[in-house]
């Protein structure tokens, strides 16, 4: 199946947004009291150095970027802009029923001047992660999975993400929570050309020739308020009908086929069931391997067996890498189960970012908190109970449980003995 394969491509490969920077000795000392999980104990939490052994870093020269796009070294026109983002989140946020992605229209879009350069960027816009550069050339900054155009280069070891007040608040709270070692470090708010950004760690900058995987966690990727709002204005959407039949021509009802349109609530609920989100509590959003192959074609990757094949392909069935991922995931799970922040928030649309490299360094981080909301004071959530509209359950731990189960099966079946 196409969604199980990582298609080879000659497009240049660029890094990822939520990325890790090196720590000074003083920083490490200041953070030494943060809680951390024992590699060999999936339930215990104890204090210690936040720098997990499974996340041992590789020192790179200061001027070397995380990952360089070999074909993107030419200077681009200052007026050249990327088109509007066509990721699922922005698609659902839009009101258009035309399905048009014409980036040359719209009052806020400038004319593309250098079409040859744009064609190169357009070819990688959906699949390419992120690149950090410290040379004279300009490079596109694109996410592995998610919104396009929300990121800029920061100082060395940092990236800038367009400010979202909700995400900023979450990151500030997380810096005081025991989850802190497992999220990008928040480094404050900055302004560039009149636009405000969150400055955070570049999680990739110390990996050598990285492979990346983004998994969106939870049994739903929309807020209950978003579903309710969509129901209040049940406009028929031709663009959502087109997206549905591209995946499954037999899914629309006879009436929907006749109208050639569906409502937004219908699309939102269907989208979660066609992938592994609803039944596994997570879905693969994108994979970028160090050999240059990449894919975001996981819309119908639904079964455990399909996911297992994707994970094996991503890790090359390397037992050391599998073990380090498994240990880190268990550390994250145990810490979440004891976290005051996690107990009082629903995490919607958040991802786990997996990164490993050719030296067998491997780590996982929690990223993307723009839809993380505090729950009402009189409510409680387990993050494992089934979601029923109104109960705020997100299935976050359900997703992590299932990912860990798959990695444990991979580790058992992988050949060879781990060296670490």
UniProtKB/TrEMBL annotation:
Broad EC category: transferase
One GO molecular-function entry: inositol hexakisphosphate kinase activity
Keywords: ATP-binding, Kinase, Nucleotide-binding, Transferase
Pfam families per record: IPK (PF03770)
InterPro entries per the UniProt record, alphabetical: IPK, IPK_sf
Disordered: annotated span: 1-48
Enzyme Commission number, as recorded: 2.7.-.-
Keyword match Nucleotide-binding: yes
Biased composition (Basic and acidic residues): 18-43
Top-level taxon of the source organism: Eukaryota
Annotated Gene3D superfamilies: Inositol polyphosphate kinase
Positions with biased composition (Polar residues): 1-11
GO cellular component, one term: cytoplasm
GO biological process, one term: inositol phosphate biosynthetic process
PANTHER family the UniProt entry points to: INOSITOL POLYPHOSPHATE KINASE, KINASE
UniProt family annotation: Belongs to the inositol phosphokinase (IPK) family.
Record protein name field: Kinase
Native source organism of the sequence: Lingula anatina
């Amino acid at each position: 199946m196409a969604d199980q394969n990582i298609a080879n491509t000659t497009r240049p490969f660029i890094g990822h947004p939520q990325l890790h920077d090196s720590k000074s000795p003083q920083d490490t000392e200041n953070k030494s009291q943060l809680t951390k999980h024992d590699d060999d104990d999936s339930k215990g939490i104890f204090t210690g150095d936040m720098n997990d052994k499974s996340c041992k870093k590789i020192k790179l020269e200061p001027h070397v970027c995380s990952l360089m796009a070999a074909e993107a070294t030419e200077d681009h026109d200052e007026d050249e802009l990327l088109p509007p983002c066509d990721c699922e989140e922005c698609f659902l946020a839009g009101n258009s029923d035309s399905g048009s992605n014409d980036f040359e229209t719209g009052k806020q879009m400038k004319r593309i001047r250098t079409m040859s350069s744009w064609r190169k960027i357009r070819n990688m816009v959906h699949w390419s992660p992120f690149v950090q550069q410290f040379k004279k050339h300009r490079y596109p900054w694109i996410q592995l999975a998610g919104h396009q155009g929300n990121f800029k280069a920061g100082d060395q070891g940092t990236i800038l993400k367009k400010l979202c007040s909700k995400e900023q608040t979450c990151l500030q709270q997380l810096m005081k929570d025991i989850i802190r070692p497992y999220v990008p470090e928040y480094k404050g708010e900055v302004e560039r050309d009149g636009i405000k950004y969150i400055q955070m760690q570049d999680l990739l900058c110390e990996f050598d020739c990285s492979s990346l995987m983004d998994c969106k966690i939870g049994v739903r990727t929309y807020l209950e308020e978003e579903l309710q709002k969509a129901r209040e204005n049940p406009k028929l959407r031709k663009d959502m009908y087109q997206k549905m039949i591209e995946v499954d021509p037999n899914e629309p009802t006879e009436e929907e086929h006749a109208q050639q349109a569906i409502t937004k609530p219908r699309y939102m609920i269907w989208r979660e069931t066609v992938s592994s989100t609803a039944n596994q509590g997570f879905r693969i959003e994108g994979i970028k391997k160090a050999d240059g192959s990449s894919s975001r074609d996981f819309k119908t990757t639904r079964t455990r067996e399909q996911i297992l094949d994707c994970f094996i392909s991503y890790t090359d069935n390397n037992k050391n890498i599998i073990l380090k991922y498994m240990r880190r995931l268990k550390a994250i799970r145990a810490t979440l189960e004891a976290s005051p922040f996690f107990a009082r928030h629903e995490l919607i649309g958040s991802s786990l970012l997996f990164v490993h490299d050719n030296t067998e360094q491997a780590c996982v981080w929690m990223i993307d908190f723009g839809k993380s909301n505090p729950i009402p004071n009189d409510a409680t959530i387990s993050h494992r109970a089934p979601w029923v509209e109104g109960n705020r359950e997100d299935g976050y731990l359900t997703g992590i449980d299932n990912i860990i189960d798959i990695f444990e099966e991979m580790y058992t079946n992988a050949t060879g003995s781990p060296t670490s």
